[in-house]
Amino acid sequence: MKPNADVCVIIAAKNAAETIGRAITSALAEPETAEVMVVDDGSSDGTADVSRQADDGTGRLTVTSFDVNRGPAAARNHAISLSKAPVLAILDADDFFFAGRLKNLLSQTDWDFIADNIAFVDEEKASSAHLALEAFPAAPRDLDLSEFIEGNISKRGVRRGEIGFLKPLMRRDFLDAHRLRYQESLRLGEDYDLYARALTKGARYKIIHSCGYGAVVRGDSLSSSHRTIDLKRLYEADRAILSQTGLSDQARALIGRHERHIRGRYELREFLDIKRQSGPKAALLYALGKPSAIPAIAGGILADKTERFRRQPQAAPVALGGSGALRYLLQPPSTAV
């Protein structure tokens, strides 16, 4: 590892040959990067070879490959097991760091997790996004479990901008002390699950408003779609947290709210899947056999039927506006709530 470097940057990648070079280059450009761990998660497009071509010769890049796709949670856990750095950073294969990101984050104190602002960037303007980046003051603040849960409950008709998009640095000693790793059965919400479990165990999660992470908006992103079973596994993950002993009443109520939200989405999707595969009668029998699911199913169908009368929500975060300004996840400190 480089002397005085603290951070292992973990990049889980599947079929990311077109973008991963940019991600790796941005991570290696940070003086605080001790290691870049790329895990090629069963790609078929030469992602591993392209990754090796981005090596800067400093010995900090390690590329490993899975023969079959195992999901981002398994890929990240594998990278954590190989790494040695005391601080871990997650970088998606189609995103990038703005220069100086790690220095700004590491200058803060008293945290187990720390995240900065995110700029949403259109793919065609990613190379010049740094020219439009605004210099917000850090204005550090703590993120509690209540705000975290609220920021991970999606709302119809509201442009996506959930707290779940944040990409915090994580202290390895906190993860190890509480035996925390990504839950490998999850293909959706694996970040949410890890951070929620950490917060219930007393993690100090700090946020700064200065921006160091560029999230590229792509319509074909793997994270933009999910299976019905993925929703089921996510609410089951909430139930696993709720089964913990020693959980505070407030934490139990907050996690329970998220569990009901995700379970409702699952029940609606399951109903629609049965209707599409086996017909309306079979779907109706499913609903009648699960009376507790009827409110979520009926509410979801009603919302879908009236969707055209409301402003259409954005399927993904809007990036560059007409003026060329970037869109940020967190409001500038002067207007932040």
From TrEMBL:
Domain Glycosyltransferase 2-like: 8-120
Superkingdom of this protein's organism: Bacteria
Keywords attached to this entry: Glycosyltransferase, Transferase
InterPro entries: Glyco_trans_2-like, Glycosyltransf_2, Nucleotide-diphossugar_trans
Organism: Rhizobium giardinii
Gene3D superfamilies: Spore Coat Polysaccharide Biosynthesis Protein SpsA, Chain A
A GO term for molecular function: glycosyltransferase activity
Database matches in PANTHER family: GLYCOSYLTRANSFERASE, GLYCOSYLTRANSFERASE 2-LIKE DOMAIN-CONTAINING PROTEIN
EC number: 2.4.-.-
SUPFAM superfamilies: Nucleotide-diphospho-sugar transferases (SSF53448)
Pfam families noted in UniProt: Glycos_transf_2
Name of protein: Succinoglycan biosynthesis protein ExoU
